[in-house]
Write a structure and sequence with these properties.
CATH topology of the largest domain: Pyrimidine Nucleoside Phosphorylase, Chain A, domain 2
Largest sheet: 5 strands, mixed
Distance between the termini: 47 Å
Oligomer: single chain
Strand order of the largest sheet: 1-4-5-6-7
CATH superfamily of the largest domain: Nucleoside phosphorylase/phosphoribosyltransferase catalytic domain
Shape: globular
Number of domains: 2
Helix content: 40-55%
Amino acid sequence: MKKFEEILSKISQENGLSEDECFFSFNYILEGKATDVQIEKFLLGLRSRGETIQEITAATKVMREKSSKVSAPNNAIDTCGTGGSGSGKYNISTAASLVAAGAGTTIAKHGNRSLSSKSGSSQVLEELGVKLDIESRKITECMEKSNIGFMFAPNHHPAMKFVGPVRQRLGVRTIFNILGPMSNPANVKKQVIGVFDKKWLKPMAETLKNLGSIRALLVNGSDGFDELTTTGISYVVELNNNNIKTYEINPQELGLKLSKIDGLIGGDPKQNAEKIIQLLDGERGPYRDIVILNSAAALYVDDKVKNIKDGIDLSIHSIDKGLAKSALEKLKKVSNS
């Protein structure tokens, strides 16, 4: 208690916490030892100063250590985003993960209920008939037989119950908003992470590099989407074998039409699930375009293609040949078996 109080007294200092202080603090909080008042002071202190890469790295390590693990194939990737865009859009990364799975990529999808839109990845998958409350070995089986398994975050991060009430009461973004996508219970080494604010792209890429990730695309749409967008350019930070580079993606240069945001706004889980079925059945339009762009990013990170343009072609093939829909049907069957 005394050590944590000392850390709280200097939480706002510009240099940030030392590595030892970081590990102590996040272990103290996620073991249920801190009071709600202390957690609030800690999170707001970090937020007001600005979290350092060292603090984010330490926090992610502790989150991973305390998670309930899932065994996944070595080449599995994740397409989990931070959420928090507040746009109420259709489920894009969930649909993109089904398309990528149909194209041969193994997806270890980590996700949660939505806080900023009406339908999170878990809610829409449940509406589609996927069983989420399953054992870790069953999730592994889903990946092996359907190329995609879903890990419902609350089932794999029980320690988060100690910070959940405080986060809800604060109602502002904290360090935990950016930790979720980097705390995959299957410990994947390749990821596409949609981020709610482009200022976090580089720090999150540096964190993943510190944690031994091999490939990652950190992306943010110029419209505020935590996805690659088709309404304008997207900002990208790419991690590739310890090298980090920054660039932009223009959908028009990849042969995609510019979309209007209105055409990408979804509804409740039932509406969004129906939209995914229509997409997998071949419906064309702005939703298909943004899904194939994000699926292309997953295929690129998985080294299935040399560039995003080739990834778009392979994603179209996955939908039009019924491979993406087949991945969903297999996921439903295995998760419910």
